[in-house]
Every structure is written in C-alpha cells, then in structure tokens.
Amino acid sequence: MNLNQLRYFKSIVETGSFQRAANILKVSQPSVSNAIIKLEAELNTQLFDRTNRDLQVTPQGMDFYYYVNESLATLDSGAKQIHVHSTKNTKLNLGFFFSIGSQFIPQMISEYWKHYPDDQFKFIQKSSYNLQNALINRDCDAVVCSLPAKQNPHYIYTPILRQNFVVAVSTQHRLARRHRISLNELDGETLLTFPLQSIARQYINNLLIAEHISPKQTIDFEEDRTILGFVAKNIGYAILPKTEVTTFPGIKALTLSEIIPFQNIYLGYPNETDHNPGLRRFVEFTKQYCQKHYDEFS
After folding, report:
1. pLDDT beneath 50: ranges in the chain
2. What is the pLDDT of residues 184-197, one digit of tens each?
3. Global pTM?
4. Which of 22, 97, 104, 123 is 20 to 30 Å from the Cα of 245, by its Cα?
5. Cα separation values, 235 from 16, 57, 188, 240, Å
6. H/E run at residue 256
C-alpha cells in the first residue's frame, strides 16, 4: 500500500469515475485501475462494484474511504507544518572553544549567512569541558569542541575539523630564527598553557611526558589569545593550534620535528534534531562546509 494508491482511491470515490480521477490526477486511466486492483488484493476486499453501468462504492469501500480521507488530511497538514518550520528563521545558541574563534567560526558563519541571512546566533565561548556541559544543560543548541571523555547517548559528536599544533615563541626568543625545533630544546623553560581540566591541556601534557620535558613552571590561562599575549612578551612558550599562532603579532610559529598527532574537533548536538529544523539545517551545512574547506584549517 502506498500514497498513490490511497490518493487514487480517494479521487475515484469523490468523482465517481476512474477516468475522471485519472484526468484530475494527470495520470493514465490504466495506471489508476491497476493501482486499485493491487490495493483491493492487498486488502482482500472489493472496494468498488463494477457490475453496474455506474461505478458504486461498496460498504467496505466507504468505510475505508473514511480512514483514507482522515489519514491523507493529517499527512498533508503535517507536510505543511514541516515546510513552515523548515523555512522559519532560526535563533541558535552556538558554543565553541577559544582557539577557533578568530578564524574558523567567523569564516563559516559568514558563509552560512550567505545562504540563510535571517538566521540568528548567540555565540558562547568556553573550554571544551564547559561546552559539553552547556550542551547537556541546554544552554547551547550545538557546540564545537573536543570529544568528551564519556559519551552521552543523547548527543552526537561528529568530527568536522582537525588541528595541527605548533610551538609559539616570541620573535625575541632565542629559537625564533629557526623554522623547526625539537621539544627537548624547550626543556626547563616556562610553559604557558590551558587549565588542567582542558582537553587541549591533556593533549599537551601527553606530548611533554612522551618526550620527558619538564617546564620550569606552568602558567594557566582560559583563553589562547591571552596565552599568545604573554608569549609575545617572551615570558614563556606555548603549544597551540597552528591557525591561531600564525596570525598573532610578535609570535613565531615553529614546527616540531617530533611526529605528533593532530587533534580532532567535533560538532556536538542532540541526537534528535527533527523537532528543530533550524538546528538540523545548521548541522548539515556545517558538515558540508567542513568537508569542502577541511584543508584550510588543518
């Protein structure tokens, strides 16, 4: 049983003729007849009495017509509502962590607004850990962050971006004339980095432990632009995403000779977006945008 069969049946009952129904539906009369024959076979019921000159609807056919009419009206109403919601302007709370706030997010949102200029955003910047909690607490509709340590079955985290890390030093640093260094050349210097609960901090700590690097001291900051400000004054070095380091004045980005893994960045959102067409639209756009522009931010 399919919608075409039901619409054909409804039209035949209302017009009293297979041919008139076919004309209204703009299909051939044999197509209508074959559809009704299959429908009657599936229901194991005769819907029309074809023995008389005038087409008659059987009592079973009239009973079925009542349900078909109600069902099609409900489906049509639902389709209209979905269309209204899908074209309705949206306001989303989008959370993202600091290191992608100066390039990736502005560039993506700028492109998004070319397609959906009336959609609105409230932007929220936090650490990845706090963003994950903001999503659970519904303070954010979607977040761009690191993968949570513990997966929640009510939320989806889709990888959209990867970040390569470099060492940031002041242009006045003793290694600033170099292009590539080894981590052991920074052993004993001050490390400027993120708080301990940060996913990025855990990533950086693992790098240092693997290379047996012991900083002279470690100074924590919530926001990477603050870290870079201190680095520019030659107070210490930092290990940060390449995209942020290369655009900050007074900073030299140094590639590491060690082979270090990249960090995946994820788009997190509720696993049920059907009730929010605007969020579903944003999620699909973000996935497609990142697939197209992936290398720009790696």
Report:
1. 296-298
2. 999 999 999 988 87
3. 0.59
4. 123
5. 88, 89, 13, 16
6. strand 251-256
